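SEQUENCE, STRUCTURE TOKENS:
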Amino acid sequence: MSTTGASPAEVAVIGLGTMGIALARLFHDHGLDVRVFDTRVSEAASLPASLGTNLRVCASIRECVENAGFVFEAVSEDPAVKESVLREVSRWTTGIIASNTSTFMPRVLAAFVDRPENLLIAHFFNPADVVPLVEVVPHEGTSIEARRAVEQMLRDAGKKVVLLEKERVGFVANRLQAAVLRESLSLIEQGVVSAEDIDEVVRSALAPRWAVAGPIGVADLGGLDVFAAVCTQIFPDLSVADEPSHLLTSLVGAGRVGAKTGSGFYPHTDQGTRASVERIARLFSSLEPDGPTTPEHPGGIS
């Protein structure tokens, strides 16, 4: 069964973990009527007090998604859970279904819904109501209308949208992040540098320039001839590991998975984690709102 007359001003969020709560807050703060559902949540008191009167906690998926113009799925990255939830969502809505997954390809999820032309991935980054970027990933059968509607809706909510023209595992941001992390962990394991100094290199040189111009823009500013020469020398020596490093897996095996357990590469406290999130929020709020600017002195790559 499905519904008709979906209203684009009504947004449904399925799944109220870290990402789902942030999505509900984002859409609420941009004046949309938001309905939410999670099997673990039964009353509005379970949600942050900052979410006000235009947010409704629903008792079922049907109640949540009926007549919603957009449904954002943010349940756990478990294939059985994804399939069950998406099939149920698809029964009760004709709206656009956007999964927040970073694990599954949209063509896989499209098999779980009645109207695959209305399904795509909208991959937010934590904290989703702070980080501007959303990767929009359609599959071959996603309609142009659905893609454009989601892009516009996200831009209206203050997001920077990057549209992928092709499906790729990890999309774009996670592939770039994984490439940097693989080389970082390799350098640490080889005894070249400490974890602390890897982070110092990124904070004090790479990240600020990337924030202004991006890695491709920095290459242009520094001189592609210079980058070609350096890459010719460095590429053969870069890590080509096709499995996570022993350093990473040993920390995970010891239960030291980072801020959520209080220890990873560094010790963590709740107060410190909140402070880090606040610093990230301040950083994004200070960036140029209309896109990157060209630095007067790009300085090359060294």
User: Anything to note?
Assistant: The radius of gyration is 21 Å. The CA atoms of residues 117 and 203 lie 42 Å apart. Residues 292-302 have pLDDT under 50 and may be disordered. Residues 195-222 form the longest helix (28 residues).
